[in-house]
Amino acid sequence: MSVRSDDGLALDWDGLRVLFPEFEDPGRWLVLLRRHAALLEQAAPRVRVTSVPPELAIRRHYAESLELLRILLQETTAASVGDVGSGGGFPGLVMACLLPGAAFHLVEPHKKRAHLLQEMCDALELTNVTVFPVRAEEAGRGPLRDSLPLVTARAVAATRVLVEYTAPLVAAGGMILLPKGSGFQDELIAAGGAISALNCRLERVVELRPEISPHAVVVVLQKLNETPLRYPRRPGMAEKRPI
Which of 39, 60, 83, 118 has the most CB atoms in a 10 Å sphere around its CB? Predict the structure, then answer.
């Protein structure tokens, strides 16, 4: 199932199945995830999407994405999910492999990565995924604005920046799930102004199971009302001048 490494617990594919017995038909989704991993490896010389060592990829990418999905399903039925900064497909494309009946909207501003996402969706025959090759701020001013019941973003930016990236996509009453590391408390303090300005509130912080990650959490925010007209600001402003 696993071996120890300098960075923690490295899973194999069978260990992934054991950790997530609640997900039905592992014979289907494990095949898709392994094919996804192979496609990423093939694309690595032309598109860089991760710095995680290969021996830790199953735990750091796939197990953490599935753990986020497990938590997500405790918050909503997940009929439609947005993923900002999808990169190589973590977590949005991974989730789409397990939930063929849900619609996934992957926002990825880097053109090569967006093109790779579309290539992988085609190769995996995923018909429930739409790739948006635009910046989050542009997506927040487009047809996705105030429309999605749930949005997530993983390893993209500090929380105070992510709130401006994600909240404009979320419908009033919807949720934002942000995976974070051990520094999440300081990030939340710094993000207080952005959370309030974007009509959100902190609902809870959920710890990942220690066998998945001993330090990671998921910050859960709720969107209370529609996005104020001034947000999101023009591209780059969220990082240059965080709220």
Answer: 83
What Cα–Cα distance (Å) separates residue 49 from each residue in 57, 86, 195? 12, 9, 29
Cα gap 12→86, rounded to integer Å: 23
> If phi over 0 gives left and psi between -120 and 50 gives alpha, with beta otherwise, what is residue 105?
beta
* Whether the bond into 45 is cis, omega within 30 of 0: no
In the chain, how long is the greatest CA-to-CA distance? 51
| Contact yes or no for 106/131 (Cβ under 8 A) | yes
Give the separation between CA 236 and CA 90, rounded to whole angstroms: 23
pLDDT in tens, 178-193: 999 989 999 999 999 9
Of residues 29, 64, 42, 139, the one with CA closest to residue 130: 139
**List of residues 6+ apart from 24 with CB closer than 8 A:** none
Which residue ranges in the chain fall short of pLDDT 70? 1-9
To the question of pTM greater than 0.90 for the whole model, the response is: yes
- 148-170: b or e for each residue (b if 16 or more CB lie within 10 Å)? bbbbbbbebbbbbbbbbbbbbbb
